[in-house]
Design goal:
The chain is mainly alpha-helical and 91 residues long. It has helices at 2-18, 26-59, 62-73, 75-87.
């Protein structure tokens, strides 16, 4: 995420330089606007994952554990989540 943030921020700065504009605090406002939705979705996804595992602790269900293991062993889903984590959400 940090590398993606650096890429976005450097793009905003380069755009200002290319257009002969001053570097000022508007850079931070533009950065916030461009990244806010991604972080909102990311934080809600983390909360969802937390709640799923918290639910698992509450019910202590063997069938729920089996479902999670099946999902984890699925090559398609595992590959999808790995790719998603590597590239991030492109919103």
């Amino acid at each position: 995420m940090t590398i993606r943030d650096i890429k976005v921020l450097s793009g905003i700065i380069q755009n200002k330089i290319d257009h002969g504009m001053q570097l000022d605090s508007s850079i931070l406002s533009k950065f916030e606007k461009e990244t806010k939705n991604k972080y909102f979705l990311f934080s809600n996804s983390i909360d969802f994952i937390y709640e799923v595992f918290n639910f698992d602790k509450k019910i202590r269900s063997k069938s729920f554990n089996k479902i999670l293991k099946i999902i984890g062993k699925n090559k398609y889903l595992s590959g999808y989540f790995i790719k998603l984590a590597d590239r991030g959400l492109n919103i």
